[in-house]
Structure formats: structure tokens, C-alpha cells
Amino acid sequence: MEQHRWARAYLWALIHGSGKKTPRRMAREDALPPAALRGLHQFINASSWDWRPVRRRLAERVAAQASPYAWTVAELIIPKSGGHSVGVHRRVDPVTGHSVNCQRALGLFLAGAGHAFPVDWSLVLSGAWDWDPQRRRRARIPEEEKERPVGVHVLGHVTDAVTLPHVAGLPWVLDLTRCEDAAGVLAGLARERLDVVCEVDPGQVVLVGQHTPTVCTVGALMGARHARQPHVIVRQAPDGRTKVVPVHLYPGTVRLPQLTVGADGASRTYRILERSAPDGRLPARYWITSLTDRPVDEVLSLVRGRSAALMTVSVLQNRLGVLDFEGRSFPGWHHHMTMASAAYVHQYLDGAPGGAPAEPSGATC
């Protein structure tokens, strides 16, 4: 019961509190009792509640209420000044080229009802966080949590998602352009017989032809003569004007070389879509999709789920405190991310009421 009371208080403070979303700062809110600092801290950092069933119930709630149409994954980079927060490491930002000290996380989202709702998280561990027993023990990292490529984290989310009723078979909309194992992610999704709309690098390898297939990259294939079939998508711009989006598609289908004859999903075929920048200054963008029988407009409309996820990440950063966790433990980080996800779902799916939380007592969890 005490956990439920402090969970309600923490949720209220994430949504309605001002400033950084840390127990110390949130405890200053007038709606919370004097014992709030100790209670909030204990609830997040010292309590032993399991975040996994909470997230599953969160996903089931979104599935039931938001009419979701796709799964997607988005990266969250959490800058850190020190080196003690669980998972913190230095990495080169692929966009800026600068080295940053940060935690790196992947969020799983269900896109629907005009939003992308966060329903699960994974923390990318590397370096000493994988092999240093003292550091792992201090951070309370479970034995099964090891260093894994980002693509393996994505497929881990897939494994969990396919067990959820009603949304297990939704298509996956992913940006794999900076994923080191994009081919492995596509192959894993194919083995699960899941549909995809994935943006890929022009160097993504595919097989062209049926009887004697040849190996080709997506970029080279779409650059070949007569390989680009023009298509026009008409969209309504936010200002009400009609926007014409030119798209090219490969008239045939391709397969994935990772799925050899006899393997699950080996017969699956894909369509390639290309969108060039209108002014020609930016490189073309490419998508590979298993939805070969769907209209192009319908396929590319699913990409809005990816855009929605990026908007959700921005809200989580700027309003709901996903960057503000100051604890150092693995469970504490997951507790905080679970509550931030619940706050987003509560605020945007239920229209969170502005009332004060039920007053918790001073007992610890």
C-alpha cells in the first residue's frame, strides 16, 4: 500500500512539479508532505518493486485505449557529468562528431491516438559495466544484463512485444540508418514473421532476382536505369495547403541475404522506396518494407509513428524528467523511467487531472 501511495505522489510530481524531477526537488512541492523526500527516494532507489510487470500493464492499457498501429524504437542520450551513474560512458555523437559522456537508452513505443506511448526501456551497457564485478555490484546490475549491440536490444524488445495480445502483430517502423547490425534486426523481424517499414542506409545489402539472385545495395539498385518507378503522394500541410511528395519505388521485390534457403522467413520479399530531397542538397532516403501488397501512401503513412516517437522523447526530456535521474543503481534508473513513461501515458491518454495526490504517510517502501 505504501508503494502505491508513493507511486501516486511521484507520478503527480513528474506531471505537475516544476524544475528538475529529482526526489529532492519534487519533495519541495506544496502538495507533498514533509516526509516526501525520504519516501520518494526510497520508492525509486531502495524499493525492490519489479518494473517489468508494471510496463507490461502500461502497454496493455495503451493497446486497449489508443488504437495503436505500429511499434517503434527511439534512442535516448542522457548527458552525465561524472562516471558513477549506471551505464555512463563516453561515445562519439554520430550527428555532431563530438565525444559525449552519457547514458544510452532505447525506448519502445506504441504509436497510436496521435502519440507514441513509451512502454519499455533498455539501458545500453559497455566497457567496465559489463566486466567489472565491483562496479556491477555497486550499481546492482542483474547477472543477465550484459553488453549487447543495439540491434540485440531492439530484438529483445521484439521478443517481449510479440507476447502482448492485440498488438503482437503490428508492423515495426524503425530507423536503422545508424544501426551497426541493421541486417540482423531485419532478419530477426523476418524470423518472427513481423511486417516492417524500416529506413535503411543506401549500403543495405539485398538480393535481386528469383532463380539466380544477385547481391546489390539499396542505393545501387535504385540508382540503376529503369529501376525507379515514380509515384506521387499528396498530403495536407499543417497550414491547410496541399503538399505533393515525390517518391520512387523499385518495381520488383527483393529478399534479404541473411535469410538463407530453409530458414524461417526465407521466402519473404520486400519493396524498396526512395524519397529524394526536393532541392537535391540532402542525400536520398530509403525504406525497405515487407508490406508489398499495400499502397505506397499507406506504407509511408506508418512512418509518422517514428516522428511521433521523437516528439515523445522531447516531451519526456523537457517536461517529465527522463534526463534528471541522479541515482546510480540499475533498478533505480528503471524505476524512474517506468514512472516517467506512466506519467506520459497518464497525461496524454487519460488527460491527467490537476488535483493533488493522495497524501502518503512517512513510512518507507
From TrEMBL:
Listed transmembrane segments: none
Domain of life: Bacteria
Residue span(s) of domain Transposase IS701-like DDE: 2-211
PANTHER family cross-referenced by the UniProt entry: TRANSPOSASE (PTHR33627:SF1)
The protein's name: Transposase
